[in-house]
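note to self: dont lose this again. the chain is below, predicted strucutre after it. 144 aa total, dont forget to put it in the shared folder this time
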Amino acid sequence: MKSQDYKTHVRLHPLYHYVLLSLLLGTLIVSIINLVRSINSEDNVLQSILLLLMVASISITAILVRLYSMKIQDRAIRAEENLRHFVLTGKLLDPNLSNGQIIALRFADEKEFPTLSERAVKENLKPNEIKKAIVNWKADNNRV
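---
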C-alpha cells in the first residue's frame, strides 16, 4: 500500500465517483429530455414521468447509501479516537472538538495526537488546518 500524507489521503472510488455518478447524471438528463419530447408530442407522457421518477429515486438512493455509510464510519472514527486519546492520556477527548476535527486528528500519530487535539480545541483549528499541522502522518487505508 502506498504511503499516505496530506496530499494523497483523499480516497476516491472510481466505480462510484466516476462510473455510477456519470451514469446517473446521464440517465437523469436523458429522462428529462425524453419527458420534454413526450410532452411536446403528447405521446407516452405517463411512461416518461415514470422513467424520470425512477431515475430520481435511484439517484437519491445512491447518494443516501454513500452518506449513510460515511456517517456510520464517522461515528466509528469518533469512538476509536476517543478510546485512543483515553489510552494515551487517561482522559476522553474534549467534547468541544467537532466531528470534523476528530476525523482529521485520526491521521496524527500517537506522539502528537494528544497535543494536537488540545491545540485544535484552544485554537479552534479547522480539519484542514489539523491535517496540515500533522508531522508524522498515520495512514487510514480503511476509509470508504
